[in-house]
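re: the backbone from monday

yeah here it is again, tokenized this time
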């Protein structure tokens, strides 16, 4: 399997780029955001995934390994092929996609062309628990959706009502969305303690 490419960008199209590695030009399908980060004539490094079909070999490129892992994970759901998986990553950034899956947000997922309500529900059911297992890219912040879910579950375990727990966590994250799980939990507990 071809897991990454490093080479000169020969050309950039609407949905792909051609990257020359060792004298061979590789056509790489990619999202508009990934393509926007490439410059013709400059060196590029892409995390890649090779999809083998009976009649084709298609290489998909990503700006980082986190997006590549999500691309592979999306395809484990029945009815989701590489094209819809790529479209999903084109519409939703990895953090936003993780948050939508963790929170069960059907509305966000149905923004992707080719994913209807039933498809979104299937994605949530099959991937909700798996998105937390993917390690974020080095230096990447933990997604706010994941933090929200973890803190809310912790508060429910401590006996707080679901509605109060969710509203408090949302308020803490709205004030500062860069906080980690432990700090959000600490602030939420302080807020809920004052209300009792």
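seq for it, each position gets an aa:
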């Amino acid at each position: 399997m071809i897991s990454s490419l490093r080479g000169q960008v020969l050309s950039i199209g609407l949905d792909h780029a051609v990257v020359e590695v060792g004298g061979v030009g590789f056509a790489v399908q990619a999202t508009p955001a990934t393509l926007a980060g490439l410059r013709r004539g400059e060196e590029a490094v892409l995390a890649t995934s090779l999809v083998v079909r009976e009649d084709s070999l298609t290489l998909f490129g990503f700006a980082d390994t986190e997006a590549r892992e999500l691309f592979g994970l999306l395809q484990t759901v029945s009815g989701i092929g590489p094209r819809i998986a790529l479209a999903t990553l084109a519409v939703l950034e990895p953090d936003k996609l993780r948050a939508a899956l963790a929170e069960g947000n059907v509305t966000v997922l149905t923004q992707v062309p080719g994913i209807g309500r039933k498809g979104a529900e299937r994605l949530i059911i099959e991937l909700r628990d798996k998105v937390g297992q993917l390690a974020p890219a080095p230096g990447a912040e933990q997604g706010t959706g994941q933090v929200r879910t973890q803190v809310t579950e912790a508060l429910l375990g401590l006996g707080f009502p679901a509605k109060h727990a969710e509203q408090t966590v949302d308020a803490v994250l709205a004030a500062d969305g860069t906080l980690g799980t432990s700090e959000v939990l600490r602030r939420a507990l302080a807020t809920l303690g004052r209300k009792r």
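The chain is about 50% helix and 20% strand. Strands lie at 4-12, 16-21, 24-29, 43-53, 56-62.
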